[in-house]
Amino acid sequence: MAVIINGKNLTIDQVIAVCRNGEKVELAPEAVEAVKKARAYIEKKVAEKAVVYGLTTGFGKFASVAIDTEQTAQLQKNLIISHTCSMGKPYEEKYVRAAMLLRANSLSRGNSGIRLETLQTLIDMLNAGIHPIVPEKGSVGASGDLAPLSCIAMGLLGLGKVTYKGQLMDAADAMKKENIKPVVLASKEGLALNNGTQMLTAVGLNTLYDAMNLMKIADIAGAMTGEALHAIRKAYDPKTHLLRNHPGQMDAAENLRNLLEGSKNALPLHETKVQDPYSQRCLPQIHGASRDAIMYVYDAVSREINAVTDNPIVFPDDDEVISGGNFHGQPMALAFDFLKIAISELANVSERRIERLVNPALSEGLPAFLTKDGGLCNGYMIAQYAAASMVSENKVYDHPACVDSIPTSANQEDHVSMGATSARTAAMVLDNAQKVIGIELSAAAQAIWLRQERGEHGIDNLAPATKAAYDFIRKTQAPIEEDVIMEYVLADFDEMVKNNSILEAVEKVCKLK
Prior knowledge:
By secondary structure, this protein is mainly alpha-helical. It has two domains: 3-196, Fumarase C, Chain B, domain 1; 204-507, Fumarase C, Chain A, domain 2 (Up-down Bundle), CATH 1.20.200. Helices cover 56% and strands 6% of the residues. It has 19 helices and nine strands. The chain has helices at residues 12-21, 29-47, 72-83, 93-107, 116-128, 146-156, 171-177, 189-194, 198-228, 238-244, 247-260, 278-281, 283-304, 330-358, 381-397, 419-453, 464-476, 486-498, 501-507, and strands at residues 3-5, 25-27, 87-90, 130-132, 135-137, 161-164, 167-170, 313-315, 320-322. A three-stranded antiparallel sheet has the order 4-6-7. It has a two-stranded parallel sheet with strand order 1-2. α1 (12-21) links the parallel β1 (3-5) and β2. α9 packs antiparallel against α13 (283-304), α9 (198-228) runs parallel beside α16 and α14 packs antiparallel against α15 (381-397). It is elongated and about 85 Å long. The two termini are 27 Å apart.
């Protein structure tokens, strides 16, 4: 079923369906009428030779330079080809597809003045799987994502390179194969295509979507470690968490109660200890804070994907064209900087739990580095090093990009958001965090197996939910009895985190919040 867009009610799940699963996109009838109305108004203003930024003037510092009516089409083409300044390796197709959809959705609102046929060409390219090559680097996040969105717009003109059915080719050749006619830009259309936050939002949205699953998988990993280290479940009692009243904390505590319900390893109380270390006892507070931050970002992104981020913005009913700053990426830059910190903390505390699993001074009687033959074998010794490396690297990426503005366009654009960097580094943090939490799952499963091997009935005593996780792991990964190439083992765990297969296995037994 196609995703119908009108600029007002697109959802994050619909964006994921289009950018990852190839769902088709259609314009809503009311969007068609709104786009036509705004375009008629723009053509009226051009005919009247009204002074309007980007219609009859240059751009940025050149806003005071008047442009003849006969040159408006060339003005728009020059804008696009001169702004294709992105550099570096190309963005993944899912990001480009998301950006194309988000730009189309913004334009469908009817406040940008683009022609219907130009907007339809963008949608046709998306539906045909023609994806312009968009290098990752070059956006400062104001006036939006000028460089990357210009790369997408250049594809509409039949210029530059695209990917099509897994092949790299000229845009014009791919369009010809799908009987799509390249666009010849008219007045205002270049600005309509490249003024906005859609590229950085596309990257951040995809990262957010995966982070929402990762926060559940982090709870599963924490519960598995709790099984291995005989955690005290009383710390997750709802009365405690209700007194603090943070939604994320209460949800994480509920997840842990459900994941550990029925465990004979992690008991409500233990005779041998009064309380666990923070990485286990405070797991709801730590994971919960990240959850609350992630949900803040969810709300911000949900608003942004239905926002008009063009400039100038057209209000046909009011006979007004307003040159403002909706293209500025600051709302998303702050959100994605917050997102990467929230994700990073999931990895930080996971690495501390890994340390407790492998360190014989902290592991409740488990053998050093989770190997039966310590000295001859090294077990999980270097797996913890790898986790430490990645959480340290994340601390570099966690620096908030949005606080580091550099003026552009001869100081006309004297504060920019750097939101594209916020989004890209959030994606890097996510990748590291997924790997670290995969290491914890692997180490916890090894520790539970070792308990069983030592006659402590670790596997037999698992809760139904953690048993589902353990059994799923053992379908592809046997316990490690002697040293193996750990890279291959950990890559498998990274994949089960990234593809959510371990989450799906657990949720067949225990639905998580």
